Sequence to fold (404 residues):
Amino acid sequence: MADFHQNGNIATLHNLRSSDTNYLTRELVAIKDTRKISLVLPSLFSELEGDALPHILDELSEVPYLHRIIIGLDQANAEQYRYAKQYFSRLPQQHIVIWNDSPRMKAIDDRLAQMDLAPSESGKGKNVWSCMGYMMACQDSAVMAIHDCDILTYDKEMLARLVYPVANPSFPYQMAKGFYPRIGDGKLNGRVSRMLVAPILIALKRVIGDRDYIDFLRSFRYPLSGEFAMRTNILPDLRMPSDWGLEIGVLSEAWRNFAPKSVCQVEIADAYDHKHQNLSLEDKTKGLSRMSIDICKSIFRKLAADGTVFTEEIFRTLKATYYRSALDLLECYYNDARMNGLSIDRHMEERAAELFAENIVEAGHSFLENPHETPFIPTWSRVQSADPDLMEDRRKAAHLDFEE
Fold:
C-alpha cells in the first residue's frame, strides 16, 4: 500500500518504504521521559494459551520507549490469574496484570452499580475502560496505545508506527488509528469491514444523503481495526461502548469531540492476521452476526443524534441499497484478490451479505423499539464526579491483587 493518497478529511500517514523504523524508535526513546507512553493490552485468559501472545511478548520485550504495559485480564479465576502474572513477568518494562474478576474489582463494580454507573456488559469495551481508569489514576502517561493480544503477524514496528503520530509533540494529532490489509493463509480477510461497513456507508449516503459523519467514517481505510493511540488528556471524557460496536463507537467519539486535523490514520503493517469469528448464521447473539447488529446500531444511534430521522421504510430501503452495494464491492474484492494470488469464497461472501442485510433491518427495528438504548460506559469524568475516590480505589485494588 505504498502510495501517498490523502482523502481530504483526515490525515493518512503512509509507510512509503523509504527507510526502516529504527529512526522512529530513536525519536520515541528521545521523548519518552517528557511524554511517557503506556500500552494497554485487553486480554482473555484463553489468549494466554494461543499462538499469538508469546510472539507479541517477544516483540514487546525489545521496545525501549514504553513507560508501562497494562494488561487487563478477563475470564480468569485465582489460579489462572497467578499463572498470568508469571506469564507476563518476562516483560522488562514496568507492567501490571489487572484481574478484572477479582473480589476487589467486583466490589468496585458493585459501587458503580449502586450509582447506576456500571458497564452494561462485560467484554473488550469494559476491559479497555478499566485499564484507562487505572492509567489515569497513575497520572504519569501522556500517550496511551491499545492493541489486541491475538495478532498472529505482530511486529514491534506496528507499535512504533501507531504511537509516533500522537507522541511526537510537533504533530497536532490527538488520536491515531492503525490500518493495514487483512490477509492471511492465502485469503482476503476482514469480511465485516469489507462486506458490511464499506457498503452500508455507501448505502446510507444514497438513502439519507450527504452527512459529514458518513464521510468521516468512509475516510478510514480499516475502520474496524483494534489499534488506537491517543493522548491521555482526551480520555476522561471518552465514552466507551460496551458492545461489539467498540471501534465504530470510538471513531464516533473522535468525530464528536475533535477537529478533523487532530485525527489521523497510520499504516502499521503490510499484512495483518488474527483469530477469526464465526459468521454465526443460526444465532444472532454470537459471532459476526452479533457484531454486525451492534455496529449498525452504533451508526444509526450516531446519525439519529445528529438529526437523522429513521423509519421502518428507510431501513427497508437501506437493506436493498446495501445489498446491491455489497455485491458490487464483492466483484472488486474478488478481482483484487485474484490479481494478488489470494482467494475469496464467493458463496460465503454472498451469504454474509445476505445475513448482514437481514441484520440491518434487525438493528433498525431494535433501534426504533428502544431509541434511548445507550450501551455506553459512563465517562471517567462522570464517575469521578459521582465518586471522587473510586478511580484511586480501583488502582489500589489492582495493585493489591498484583502484589498478592
Summary: The first strand starts at residue 11 and ends at 13. The mean pLDDT is 93. The two ends are 48 Å apart (CA to CA).
